[in-house]
Design goal:
The chain is of the alpha/beta class. It has a single domain, classed as P-loop containing nucleotide triphosphate hydrolases (Rossmann fold, 3-Layer(aba) Sandwich). It contains eight helices and ten strands. The strands form two sheets. A six-stranded mixed β-sheet has the order 6-7-8-3-9-10, with helices on both faces. β4 and β5 form a beta hairpin. α5 runs parallel beside α6. It binds adenosine-5'-triphosphate and magnesium ion. The site of magnesium ion (MG) has 4 residues, from α1. Magnesium ion binds next to α1.
């Protein structure tokens, strides 16, 4: 499956935030998208998922126009996203959150044992009472353990302890091995370097760099763009 964005524009109440983004992601690859705070990364996620209308440009899924599709239709077609904040229904239990993502009770242990093991057996705990890191891991599990073809992850490692960054990295890597595509929006450059097949750098709502990860100059360009 392949998702293409061409000259994508979107914004909030007439104030533009994306100024013509063109990019693509396909099955079997991990694309790391990086950029400083406020450049439009989360806005892009919302636009790709249909939560924010496209004001100009086009979105294609396997060459089919989906620019005006409802989010639910995109999810049914195989697109999935994890959000930077509040990825779970806070008032529902861990088990109920998993059920809403399609995991029946008898399939839940298999997910919880891996994301990470400390979540095992905690189906009846209210999701809002999990720690911030546990909530991030569970929200990532909900996306990565479904059969979605393309998964967009908005800063999934923000606030995670280093060992969980590694665990999550392994799961993202496994998703690619299973033939899924992942658009990984990530500030944790070490993880992006470990996983990415390609890099995209966004500045002020535009793509300013796009290169394969083995391009010898990409690391220097990313550091310069991010001022790190
Ligand atoms: N709901 C909103 N209403 C109005 N403006 C918004 C809204 N959400 C985001 N913006 C603006 O759109 C621009 C892009 O924000 P966005 O959240 O996409 O950035 P980001 O790259 O995800 O940043 P971060 O790294 O901090 O997560 C910012 O100028 C922001 O203030
Ligand atoms: Mg963001």
């Amino acid at each position: 499956m392949r998702l293409n964005a061409t000259n994508l524009h979107a914004g909030y109440g007439g104030v533009p935030a994306l100024h013509g983004i063109s990019m693509e992601i396909q099955s079997g690859e991990i694309v790391a998208l990086v950029g400083r705070n406020g450049v439009g990364k989360t806005t892009l996620v919302k636009t790709l998922m249909g939560l924010l209308p496209v004001t100009d440009g086009e979105l294609l899924l396997d060459d089919q126009p989906i620019t005006n599709w409802a989010p639910s239709k995109r999810v049914r077609a195989g697109l999935r996203a994890t959000f930077q904040e509040k990825g779970l229904f806070q008032e529902l239990t861990v088990g109920e959150n998993l059920r809403l993502n399609g995991f029946e009770p008898n399939a839940q242990d298999a997910v919880l044992e891996q994301f990470p093991k400390s979540l095992s057996g905690r189906q009846s705990q209210r999701a809002g009472t999990l720690s911030g890191g546990e909530q991030k891991m569970l929200a990532a599990a909900c996306a990565l353990k479904t059969d979605a073809s393309l998964i967009i992850m908005d800063e999934p490692t923000e606030g995670l302890q280093p060992s969980n960054v590694e665990v999550l990295g392994d799961h993202i890597d496994n998703a690619r091995s299973a033939g899924r595509g992942v658009l990984l929006i990530e500030q944790h450059i070490a993880l992006a370097n470990r996983l990415a097949d390609r890099f995209i750098v966004v500045e002020k709502g535009r793509v300013v760099e796009a290169s394969p990860a083995d391009d010898p100059t990409i690391q220097t360009r990313i550091k310069k763009r991010l001022a790190i």
